[in-house]
Amino acid sequence: MIPLTALPELGVGVIYWPALDGVLSRTDNGVDVLELEPQAFWFQPGPDTHGYMLDEAVFSHLAEAPQTCLAHGVGFPVGGTCPPDPEQVDAFVRSIIRLGAPWASEHLSFNRLRQAGGEIDMGFLLPPIQSPESVACAVDNIRFLKRHLPVPLAVETGVNYLKPLPGEMPDGEFFRSVAEQADCGILLDLHNLWANERNGRQPICEVVNQLPLERVIEMHLAGGQEYGGYWVDAHSGLADPELMDIARQVVPRLPNLKAITFEIMPQFLLAYGITDDALIDQFAQLRKLWQLRGTAVSEAPVPGPRRAGARPGPVLPAPGQWEEALASILLPHQHTAPGFAESLAGDDGAGVIRKLISAARAGKVADALPLTTRLLLLTLGAARVDQVLDDFWACTPSEQMASNEARKFIEWALSGSLGSEVPHLAQVSAFELAANQAIMTGREQLVDFTVDPMELLGALRAGRMPSKLPAGRYSLTVTPPAAPSS
Q1: Confidence band of 337 (pLDDT split at 50, 70, 90)
Q2: Second label for 144, Cα 20 to 30 Å away, from 86, 268, 282, 327?
Q3: For residue 454, what are the contacts with CB-CB under 8 A and spacing of at least 6?
Q4: Residue 422 carries which DSSP code?
């Protein structure tokens, strides 16, 4: 395996979304690296199939891009008791090869829970208990990945909205122990650490001082927002000036930094009026930051406030007990209540995570079923739709893939009264599920309608309910997207 010090110095990057193609087409964009979260561009051909297919259009597009590409995993984090899913690892390896990525990364979090009947998806990246036992779990998972990945691996310093438990390892010590024992790289997400500090966890300067900085090969910067009294890692805007000031103190101390990557979710570009010029200015600021790398590696650590070390406290839960306790307070369909759950239930951060899980699941449904979601909103109103989704979450575990989450939601909705209450729900959702299936399988799909589909779908695309539609018998053929030109 290539040593971390031998990895190429890439420069300034951005997490890739198709919505960024406009700014990336400009000759003055200043972007050297496109980092892909590949799980967002994988498909499962059917509800009962195994394995994942890559979205050929996206991967072919990136193969022709002038920038170097990286792979940033979001589906099998390494911080939990469930080992990485072999089918996802297989697709991740294929993604790395298609992208030509010189390294890959994953999160030091967990998103799955072991149960007697198998595993359930938690619907969110969650923090492990920071203990030597959790370090051992993460090290085993990272070693498994290192045996299978064709490139070096870095693990991301995670965000954590929960208060530290007495006796837990400090954030920096936990990150350091994992990286050193697993002999892997570090993706230093400064916005995660800044959010942790703002929400009452370890100060960012202390975390950085505890890290083996020679292992930091990549840095993430992002914008966040206030939510429920917390600062959340929403990737919702440009990097805050205070965060950039912190970065200017940290980057000079990183002797092996290979890339600085900016994260922003595409829905916030329009919602917050973030222009292409504003993005290019952000990339220019990152370029100045990049030029500072490794210029002060011999300097002493940045001084921070003195804090007492962790004092002995109650016995910490084992990693599996911690995961069960979090599940029992975060997931409404989980009813087990280990003793540790009582202390977590009083943590306001748990309430924030619960809301973020709901928002993430709603986002998956809306992304896969945009016209169906619009039909529900136009018919029921936002408050009622929120209640409908809450009812669905309460009885149905999360699905990691958006297409599977959408399919389960429609099956649940049509099994109740919504099918008769919301006009055309079955037909609009069938069309969108067929469109997803056409993309995933590359085969045409036939959908039957009892009203003119062009009038119905055209009205919803225009953001309005259709006028009264005469009954009839119609069929619509949904074709897959055209193959990318060579």
Answers
A1: low
A2: 327
A3: none
A4: S
Tokens of 288: 């100045």
Give the C-alpha separation, 458 to 223, whole Å. 36
Name the residue with tokens 């697993």. Answer: 182
- Taken in order 28, 34, 37, 40, is the CA torsion positive or negative? positive
Residues β-bridged to residue 231: 226
Query: Which residues neighbour 479 within 8 Å (Cβ) at sequence distance 6 or greater?
Result: 438, 444
Which pair of tokens denotes residue 53?
């297919």
Structure confidence at residue 115 (pLDDT): 76
Find tokens 């829905």 and name the residue: 267
Query: pLDDT-derived band of residue 484, with 50, 70 and 90 as boundaries?
Result: very low
Q: What's the distance, Cα to Cα, between the start and end of the chain in Å?
A: 32
- Give the Cα-Cα-Cα angle 438, 41, 194 (nearest 5 degrees): 150
User: Contact 107/158 with Cβ under 8 angstroms?
Assistant: yes
- Give the tens place of pLDDT for each residue, 89-104: 999 999 999 999 999 9
Check whether 301 has a pLDDT greater than 80: no
Cα(123)–Cα(326) distance, integer angstroms: 12
Structure pTM?
0.89
- Of 31-35, 52-56, 78-82, 329-333, the least confident: 329-333
Q: Distance between CA 34 and CA 16 in Å, rounded? A: 6
The Cα–Cα gap between 85 and 92 comes to 10
What is the SS3 assignment for 220? strand
DSSP per position, 146-191: HHH-SS-EEEEPPP--SPPPTTPPPHHHHHHHHHHHHT-EEEEEHH
CA–CA separation, 20 and 61 (whole Å): 13
Residues 6+ away with beta carbon under 8 Å from 198: 230, 231
